[in-house]
Amino acid sequence: MWLVWPHAGDWKKFKLALKSAKNELEHKRQVVARLPELQAKVKEYEKLNPGIESHSIELLRTIQTKATLAKINITSYSPARSVTNEFFVEQLQTITVQGREPQIIEFLYQLGLSEALLRVRGLSLRPDATRQYLVGNITIAASYPRLSPETAVQPLTQRAFQQPSPPTHISATQTFSRAPIHLAQSNVPVAPPNPRYITNSTIITNQNLPKPR
Questions:
Q1: CB 112 within 8 A of CB 137
Q2: What angle do CA 52, 55, 60 make, to 5 degrees?
Q3: 118-154, pLDDT tens digit by residue?
Q4: Domain at 50-145, CATH from 3.90.800.10, 3.90.550.10, 3.40.50.800, 3.30.70.60
Q5: Burial level of 7, CB count in 10 A (0-12/13-18/19+)?
Q6: 114, CA 20 to 30 Å: which among 5, 27, 50, 121?
Q7: What is the mean pLDDT of the chain?
Q8: Worst-scoring range by mean pLDDT, 151-155, 181-185, 209-213?
Q9: Does pLDDT of 200 surpass 60?
Q10: Degrees (nearest 5) of the Cα angle 43, 46, 50?
Q11: Cα dihedral value 80, 85, 86, 91, nearest 10
Q12: Distance CA 74, CA 72 (A)
């Protein structure tokens, strides 16, 4: 004799799961249908901020370099975030670190010595299970000047390859107009120059000039 246990409630669960799967499928179809529109927006944002990707890579390299100098371990990286305003692009990077207290202090000090404008936006530390190291999250913010499409690097135009204009040559016989110089008339006799100071070139001193009346 076999005993069959009724499963009347399972059919309701299956119907709910099927409805949920259909809703998720419909949502994904809508997202896929908007893919060309989203790609066009991404390209538009990239034109407005051409250096976001390069800034993210530069920030990661700087963090890794400073961590190596301070001898701390970076166990994980969170996805970078970008915040833009009218003048700057702010890159935010959150990392999970592990190290002793002097090493973490050295790491923060090394960040301050960086050429880029870096600052610590958030800091959360706690002792690990062994209570010998500190573990926690550090959020680092870097600010970069925002490059507009006008100030971004533009491709070379045809004008850049034009030959420079030849220099202007002035012939030796060319003369320039010069306003005449009028000297005030003076009745004071001029003393003859001292023969001791006469050389191949004429020397004019204050003694040879007429004194004003």
A1: no
A2: 130
A3: 889 899 999 999 889 999 999 999 887 776 544 444 4
A4: 3.30.70.60
A5: exposed
A6: 50
A7: 73
A8: 151-155
A9: no
A10: 150
A11: -20
A12: 7
Pick the closest to residue 108 from 78, 138, 150 (CA basis): 138
The full length of the chain comes to 213
pTM of the model: 0.45
Two tokens at 93? Answer: 């990077």
Residue 136 Ramachandran class (φ > 0 left, ψ -120 to 50 alpha, else beta): left
Instruction: Report percent pLDDT > 70 for the chain.
Output: 61
**How do the domains of the chain map onto residue ranges?**
20-49, 50-145
Task: Determine the 3-state secondary structure of 136 from DSSP.
Answer: strand
Query: Token digits for 22?
Result: 């259909």
